[in-house]
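Submission sheet (multi-component)
Chains listed below:
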Amino acid sequence: MHTSIQVENLTRVFNRRGTAPFHALRGVSFDVSYGEIFGLLGPNGAGKTTTIKIMSTLLLPTSGRVTVAGFDVEREYARVRPLISLISGGETSGYGILTVEEQLWMFSQFYGMETPVARARIEEYLKVVGMWDSRRQQMNRLSTGMRQKVNLVRGLVTDPSVLFLDEPTLGVDVEASVIIRRIVRDWVQERPERSVILTTHYMAEADELCSRVAIINHGLILANAAPSQLKQDLDSRAHYEITLDRFDAEQLDRITAVMGEGNDLVLGADKATNSPMLVAHLTHESDIARLITALAAQGATLEYMRKLEPTLEDAFLKMVGRRFEDEEEAASPVS
Amino acid sequence: MKGFLASMYVGLQIESNWTKKWVWLLYLAAYPIGSFLAVIILYGVFGQKTGLLPYALYGTIFYYSLSMVFFDMAFSVHDDREHYQTLKYIFLSSTSYRTYLCGRAATRYLIALAGIVINLCWLVPVLHLPFHPNWGYLLAGAFLGYLVAAGLGLAMASVFLLTIKLDVDVVDALFGGMFVLSGALFPPTAFPAVFAKIAEFVPMSPFIELMRRAASGQVLTSFLSGMSTSQLLGRVALSAAILFAVGSVLVSFGSRQAQRKGYIDVTTAF
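Outcome: structure written.
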């Protein structure tokens, strides 16, 4: 894999009359390889959209350098633009008076595509998103989810090398979100010379799609690694939730003694069934076998067990010291 | 070229797709009437003795063809940015924004010309307007008129790219000022000498006078009468080339500044 995007020490300051300059980006650096879905994860106002706007040539940086496919976005933007597509979520873009098909064809012409090629791709992608039957509907009659699917097709029809997705599932229903995520994943897997940069504040979306995630907050990159790595870095211990038919404090003491130091057991109750529930934090994953044997020896029957996986939300909490939502509340309106 | 044609298509759809085709054709014919009805009343009813009706009517009609274009281009910046939210996607495409605007201008200009042709069909016989067209001058003038309008439109679009709020008052003031100074409504020779001289250099003046002569077959007033029609054509060609070049440079500059300020995809409560 070679580098599709390189971002070096990027800063962006917004000067507004009557207010102090707003530093949206404060020295952001990362790179993205071809074949990769790279996520920029952060609360509203973190600097994700500013970064994507600069990468996609919509905005100039205050300082720093960005290259896309080797071209400088500030000086060689005319060479960058044919290679990229931008899809923004949470908006109702499009000429409402045009039909879906007309809208997509029109944008294909802005990229100089031959009409037969464009029409074939439009048909292919409209079928993929399940909107072929709606091709003659006017844009202003579509639901938000449908418009976002059309927006996605618009971005894909021109066959870009780099796809910028700015909150692509914002405001769309669950079904449309699932479809959009599947298409994005398949699109990158289809050809290794493609790459996707995704900004999202949905942790699960980044976790599901991205091979690497940069967590950004207040214009700074706090971490840049694979989601699994970020979660693993949180805590090396294994965590389990075990619901039992019966269990008491006395039995807990005995088992705690058996499990030894470093293994913590917390007794609670299952919220749904009110059965005793044991939360186990184990030093080694293999300790779960010893725990189950010990529980059986105490005469407790295991009703339900699940492994607790750390989430990116936990990673964010650890890095920032505040929950994602709390950061969003305090965020600036410029993101 | 594909981008240019696609933007012409968008322009046509925006203009016409809001209703049935026959209603739109009626609208096409009726819409310009508003702009020259006042002229007919002013010079055809109250100022009959002045004999300026043909001058003012042709002037107003051809001013209309230009003004429709450059105001439409200016407003399209706001429409695409705020209403359709497509401006950023147009910017990011392989088609330059200038080409896109020129495509939109071409549609608007052709629609305006169509409206003029339809209306001349009844204005000429009903009002006994002199009509001895020189088709060569008319066609050349119509083509150059597009460049004049597009050049002005590009210049105006560059300003609107850098303004977040749409200021209709400024547009109206500009519209009114140029209408008077271009000699569309009455001969600028009626002005004090200084203003009359300025009027000669208003970019639309030679175009309007050329089209007047090309349509009526006559020199209707003393305004620019010192120039032959071919000289006028040369003057229009020169001003079209300059205006289009200046407009192109300004829209490139405006685009770059909008990129710097982050105005390309800005949306407000407008």
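Remark: The first helix of chain B runs from residue 2 to 16.
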